[in-house]
Amino acid sequence: MTPQQALLPPRAGGHAITAGRPWPMGASFDGEGVNFAVFSAHAEKVELCLFSPDGRKELARLALPERDGDIWHGHVGGLMPGTLYGFRVHGPYQPEQGHRFNPHKLLIDPYARALEGRLKWSDALMGYKVGSSRGDISYDTRDSAFAVPKSVVVDTSFMWGEDAAPRVPNAETVVYEAHVRGMTMLNPGVEKGLRGSFLGLASDAVIEHLVKLGVTSLELLPVQAFADERFLIAKGLRNYWGYQTIGFFAPEPRYLAKGQVWEFQSMVRRFHAAGIEVILDVVYNHTGEGDEFGPTLCFRGFDNASYYRLLQGGRHYVNDTGTGNTLNLTHPMVLRMVMDSLRYWVEVCHVDGFRFDLATVLGREAHGFDPNGGFFDAIRQDPVLSRVKLIAEPWDIGPGGYQLGGYPHPFLEWNDRFRDGVRRWWKGDPGMAPDLAKRLLGSAERFDHHGRAATSSVNFVTAHDGFTLEDLVSFTLKRNFANGEENRDGHHDNHSDNMGVEGPSEDPAIRAARDLRKRNLLATLMLAQGVPMLLAGDEVGHSQGGNNNAYAQDNETTWIDWAKGDRRLAAFTARLIALRKAHPVLRQRRFLHAQARPMDGLPDVIWRRADGRSPSPQDWHDPGFRCLGVELRMAAEGGDPGHPAIYAVFNTGAESVLRLPDTAPGWELILDTTRPDLEIAPGGPGTRAPAQSVLVFRSLAAKSKDLSGGKS
Known about the structure:
This protein is of the alpha+beta class.
């Protein structure tokens, strides 16, 4: 018999529940029992429900005895970690005024540290009666407890030992966007029983691959507990990406091999020991409860009018996210929940940063997006959160939703202008030289303001949302039929190029052209100022068969087939990352604006044509300008003159004769994407830029004179 069975026989009468305290939020074990504290501004009564270890039987239903402001709380003696629980909240059911209380629906604790059991789709999950002529304003009295995951009391203590955050500077960061299952399900180096789990992700095989590749920061697609949408389950699919959060403090149960929170903590500790940061993709813009026809799982049942942004009248939801609802971060308790969640993952789980999905939602106040809004103010003043990596996806579908460059320091931002501009350059679209120049210098026109650094731009060519690198050079049209939406979903304009044949090809010429294009795209990514982000699997040629919206494909479509991976491409990618690491001129904090450097009078950036001359205004506007060179030095403001200059050539046209700059005593070729195995070659008269190539030259040190002409 468990402690809760012994102390708390069924139902409410005569049980040992005392006032407890209104903090901390959620369920907290204190050695003598468990304190429970939840928020609701409009509830009339909050009941704690305790369940049997298998979650099937409700053992007790206890009304929280105290309310401190809008915090309801109580303490139950004798409870231990592992106790399963949920809540039922009483209050008005008035959808037209925004209230959807229904005590027949068991609710997940918004602060639950773990969940037990899976969501079982049933009409009983709905607060309204499905099929009623009154729609969502009808009222359903079926008990949903059998279908709802149970919250779990957790002891989050963990033996961290000498764990230390890697704290990789932004200028040295290389992000690797990955999925727990995608990385491990077909990885022969991961123990079968651990594939698809946090422990499997932290296996030697995965860590060794990342270390060899040279990435510094592993960015995981959502790992907070999420729901599979009902329409996906009906199609025999499930949510793969995880952007339907129902528990902001709980790790997703399907990624726990043993059902314990320590598995996530252990994963982080192992990555830290290898010098790799762990960044979480987090979804605080909406929840998995959907619109007014969605289920009542948690927030809707606790206080719908507080947790969500509602349209005038209250019945319908603001849908700036495209998912049916939008969290109301202008409410102080909702904002507090988000801040508490972020701090929990940093302080208790030791993560190193966050990528915020649809981050414009987080900064939208009543008057619109505000970089000085409540969310940004709260996170920037926080002594814990202000020191971790903060990355924004700077758009949503709401009014004024596209805000690239509009975020405050210290936020970094996903730069879709880089993605599209680089794709179009290598695809051969006319007139793209000016855009490429901007992207290579960190998109200063977007980010160079209010003291922001050139590392504010997170550059990427591919991400989870869209084509993989292999598909980008293999398909001109998306193929998302497996998603069951008749190929209507996903981006339509991908700036992709199949190199002459649609889909897979065994033609050696087609394969060679595609391989070269991939190397050119990767080289452009790693040579640009900013923070580069690599999509997991791109380095080994992973294909999704042309699916550019694989959110529901938890199968071989998205799982990386490591055994068939392109080892030569992986080695080339590692070489690019090593080249970037070895040359600080490629990863500067300061923007480059062609200012003369005090130490030698040379500009920190010089643009060049193939013949060595600087492009004229006419050249920049020439749609046929397809061979662009850029000479880079450390920034004029505070640059270290000791680092060699880099001259990079991006040629998307025919073969061109190059005249190398005379601003250095000589140059050596250190990268040629048409010769991926080339190490170093001399550069000088007769040097050519092959068609469709990236070349990188490094300046040779002067032997008898310094660059300014003085004696050494």
